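Board notes (copied after class):
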Amino acid sequence: MGNKKVLATLAIGATVVLSGCAQTIVPGLGLEKASGFEDNRDSLVIEAAVKDAKTGELKPGNITVTQDQMDFDGNRKDFGPEESYFKVVTDEGESVSGHLIRVVVQANDPEAEVLCAIKDITKEEPTHATESEGEGSATCQIDVS
């Protein structure tokens, strides 16, 4: 009988611990088109670009953004043949601070040159940034402090 009580107690304790650790999406998390890094102080800004590997011509692509490896409404955006910028937005008073933001930039052409960059310009100094380049796709992430 004693073993059943111990097992029941352990199961209840594990359930409480696991449910307390559940991640949730920051309220209002979304993406808005932006003009660049300079005009978006106090924001987390993503840069995405796709270039033809042979001609260097800019091509369309798409980005997919996740928070703590979770999708959210509107987390995928297509962009045209341009260097594109997107601002991470939240509801008033909310923040992505303490969360991992991951971005995947994808090209339609698997041989295209792809750029992915994120800048956390929510602080004056230091500016926290990450950048990657790849063929066909590129992934970058930032742990927002």
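Comment from the instructor: The two ends are 49 Å apart (CA to CA). The helical segments are 2-20.
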